[in-house]
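seq as requested:
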Amino acid sequence: MHKSESLTINVDLTDLTLWCAIVVPTRFRYTTALRDAFSGGGISSLQDLDDRGWVSGSQANVFVANHDTERVR
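struct tokens:
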């Protein structure tokens, strides 16, 4: 019999770089940003989307329509 050994690896699961290396994340934050901008928040707020710390659209599946929130109407 082999003695069982335990290995602990500390990983920051909030690290978006790690996630993007493993999977293509699905992001819905753009939906909210677009809705807010066109519902009175001003479309100039869309200029800083790259500075919000979100996964970029080139690394994620980005949705601009969310069927879950569309059903609420």
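The mean pLDDT is 76.
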